[in-house]
Structures are given as structure tokens and as C-alpha cells.
Amino acid sequence: MTTVKTKKYLNALLEKTYDAQRGYSNAAEVTNHVQLKRWLAQQGVRRTEFAAVLTGEMKRMNKTPELDGSFTGDMHRGWMNIKVALSLHKDESILEECLTGEKYAFQEYGKVLENKDELPPSVVSILQSQKDEIQSTVNEIMSLEDVAHKQHL
Question: pTM for this one?
């Protein structure tokens, strides 16, 4: 059941996962809020774990995993740095950019899962679990944004 498309799908998600990991690490570096810094770092670790699971699955299927992020991810992190530097409400800006990235990742997982008939069941299960966790993270970020916004009113 492993196809060329399986490799393509998983490598695309791996690329996004590396981008997310770097984005969270970058965000953790630029915030001064200790609890937010810790939460962002934890999210970066989770994305590293996502990548390890996807890489392991690809290796089990004798597929070559992608080992780096994307140019688009680099651009997004650059934009986040500029936006944060110019913002009066740095933590809100950080969370806004994290939310944008997570929503995009959620959509990408959804696109891959639309083709779940082309994927091994074990991969579908992993992707669904990761997608669910990304949705949970989206919800957390929205709650954190509300708190950050209320603190600056």
C-alpha cells in the first residue's frame, strides 16, 4: 500500500512539522513571558516528536524522509520576527503568528487525510492523532490570545 504518493504526502507534512518546530523555538526566544516561553518550547518539542514518528514510519516503509523545513516556513518566521519587533503587544503578535501556522498545518493534514485510501492504516492513525493534537493547540492558542488581549486593554 505504500506508494510514491505516500512518500510525497509524508514528506510534505514533515517539512511543515520542521517549520512548526522552528517557529515555536523562535517564538519562545522572542517572548519575555516565562509561562508563554515554556509553553512555546513545549510545542516545539511536540513537533520534534511528530517529526520523529513520521520519519520512523517512512523508514519502516523504506522511504527517504525529508530532513528540513521549507522556504515558506523560513519566510513566515522572518515575518513573525519583524511583526513582533514592531508590535506594542509582542505576545499577542507571537500567538497570532503561531495560530496562522497551526491552522495551515491543520489544513495540510486534512488534505493528506482526504487521500487516506492511499495510505497504510498505521499512517492514517498517526496522522489523525497528530491532526487532532494540532486542533487542540489551535484552541489553546485562541484561549491564550484572549488572555493576552485582555491584559492589554
Answer: 0.82
